[in-house]
Design goal:
Helix content is 22%, strand content 19%. It has 106 residues and is an alpha+beta fold. The mean pLDDT is 96.
């Protein structure tokens, strides 16, 4: 856990958040500034700063994030109408919180 990371605080229960899904490695919750009717964040519990900081051992978590995104799109009834799965990478790529996360927008 990174001391000042808002997503680490959410994952560890320091900031109350309603999880729509949780397992041993991920949490899913609504974005506080939604850009669409469905805007969820899929966040690994392990602190990984960004896509650029992924290691070989993180392969499984990224694939799990994508599969969870697909499953949440189904649960949120946007799988047929369409949705986006987005990673922002570094400040120039729009990353605002430096803890790996994926947006589900539908």
């Amino acid at each position: 856990m990174e001391k000042d990371c808002i997503f680490c605080k959410i994952v560890n229960g320091e900031i109350p958040t309603d999880f729509l899904y949780e397992n041993d490695s991920l949490v899913v919750f609504k974005d506080i500034n939604p850009q669409a009717p469905v805007h969820l964040l899929i966040v690994p519990k392990k602190h990984i700063r960004s896509i650029n900081d992924l290691t070989e051992e993180d392969r499984k978590i990224v694939s799990e994030m994508i599969i969870t995104g697909r499953d949440m799109a189904e649960k949120e009834s946007v799988s047929k109408s369409g949705y986006k799965l987005i990673f922002h990478v570094e400040k120039g790529g729009g990353q605002l919180v430096f803890h790996l996360h994926m947006h589900l927008i539908g």
